[in-house]
Specification:
By secondary structure, the chain is mainly alpha-helical. It is built from 16 helices and no strands. Helix 4 runs parallel beside helix 6, helix 8 runs antiparallel to helix 13 and helix 12 packs antiparallel against helix 13. The longest helix has 30 residues. The chain starts with a helix and ends with a helix.
Length: 411
């Protein structure tokens, strides 16, 4: 029992968190675009139906993201993460067997619910465990997104090409095995913070009073709007960019390699952006990373050629981790410490709403325009607004350097 009462080393805790993001975020949400072409062909789905499946996952996420925050606050972040892992693992198993469209919709909702319970409480748990290294911890944890995309970019095309009829089912079964493995690791190596964060009488930068509701904090609301832009545009990217690349002349193997390359870059970019944001300020990190994401998305819209798709995946691999890291860190920058989990859950509502709307809207546009360029041009316009919102967050930015002694102490 003493083993389960001791906090594991920093590296082990964060590595376990990164593997959680692989399952609850990458496998359950971001890999759907890779499985989509084979799954759509195998089941005879239209693009609109395929987009609705992604929307169903976003709906499950949207409905329970605040519930998950309350659950984690009452029963513990570790317990919430375990529940999320169980839900997504059962969803993977069901998807590997189901063929009825209504059953598929229900299972995709289950994946979204699992992501709600697994991801946001995980970020809050780790950030509260190491509050003075918030940006770095979130960056390291989100490096699991890159590792997962690297793995999926190599695995999914190989399985779907090896068995053109049922290879996509084997993909979901493989994801289920990964979910079972990570559940075991969480049981062994993830710990709740030793004690809840005490209520503080002053916020980091004095934006709003200590008892003021989160939704009245202008900085948190603006960060939430930025997260909504990211949710809408990034889910469209992960759902349709792979298919757009195939439509643009890339082979499935080449497109898979580009996704893997994006994953490799994200592995290293996540910790780098966390370190950079801790020092330059989270809002400055938002402006820079959102601008680079806009550039990456615009390139294949203007020039739908192989080199533009390659540049897209490379640039996005270098910058998207900065968006997630900076947003999650910035959301707690101007609130008292005891309100940090609520702030994270609140801004995640915007993200979930964007994820809910993005695939459905993009699917309709793809069907209407009989192509992908118009849909991604719309994403670019939304991201222009996102850059402006990122710039507005700078007025409340409260950058304070992280002392080297704190970093060395692992806090």
């Amino acid at each position: 029992m003493r083993f389960f009462q001791q906090r594991p080393p920093f590296v082990l805790m964060v590595a376990t968190g990164a593997m959680c993001t692989v399952v609850v975020l990458v496998f359950a949400r971001l890999c759907y675009g890779l499985v989509l072409p084979a799954m759509r062909d195998g089941l005879g789905l239209s693009y609109a139906q395929a987009a609705n499946l992604s929307t169903a996952t976003a709906l499950g996420y949207l409905l329970l993201v605040m519930v998950a925050g309350v659950f984690a606050a009452r029963f513990g972040g570790k317990q919430s993460v375990l529940l999320g892992l169980v839900l997504v693992t059962l969803g993977f198993i069901g998807l590997s067997q189901a063929s009825d469209y209504r059953v598929l919709l229900a299972l995709m909702v289950m994946l979204g619910m699992g992501t709600a319970f697994g991801y946001t409480p995980l970020i809050s748990l780790l950030a509260n465990t190491y509050p003075k290294r918030r940006g770095s911890v979130i960056g390291f944890t989100n490096s699991g997104v890159g590792a997962g995309m690297l793995l999926a970019g190599a695995l999914v095309p190989a399985l779907t090409q090896a068995d053109t009829s049922d290879g996509w089912r084997h993909v979901w079964l493989t994801f289920a095995a990964g979910g079972a493995l990570v559940t075991t690791l969480v049981l062994l190596f993830l710990r709740n913070p030793e004690r809840p964060m005490a209520a503080s009488t002053d916020a980091a930068t004095g934006v709003g009073g200590p008892g003021e509701p989160i939704f009245r904090n202008p900085h948190v609301v603006t960060v939430g709007l930025v997260y909504g832009v990211l949710g809408l545009t990034y889910i469209v990217q992960v759902t349709f960019m792979y298919s757009f690349a195939l439509d643009g002349g890339l082979t499935a193997l080449s497109a898979g390699h580009l996704v893997s390359l994006m994953g490799i870059l994200s592995i290293f970019a996540g910790p780098f952006w966390g370190w950079l944001a801790d020092r330059l300020g989270y809002s400055n990190g938002l402006v820079l990373s959102m601008s680079l994401s806009l550039l990456a998305t615009a390139l294949p819209v203007i020039w739908p050629q192989p080199w533009a798709f390659a540049a897209h995946f490379v640039i996005l691999g270098l910058c998207v981790a900065g968006l997630f890291t900076s947003i999650l860190a910035a959301s707690t920058e101007t609130v008292p410490p005891h309100q940090a989990p609520v702030a994270v859950s609140f801004v995640t509502l915007f993200y979930a709403t964007g994820q809910f709307l993005g695939p459905a809207l993009a699917g309709l546009v793809v069907e209407w325009s009989e192509g992908f360029r118009v849909a991604f041009a719309g994403s670019c316009l939304v991201m222009v607004g996102g850059v402006y919102l990122c710039w507005r967050t700078r007025r409340h930015q409260g950058y304070r350097a992280v002392p080297a002694s704190a970093c060395a102490a692992g806090e």
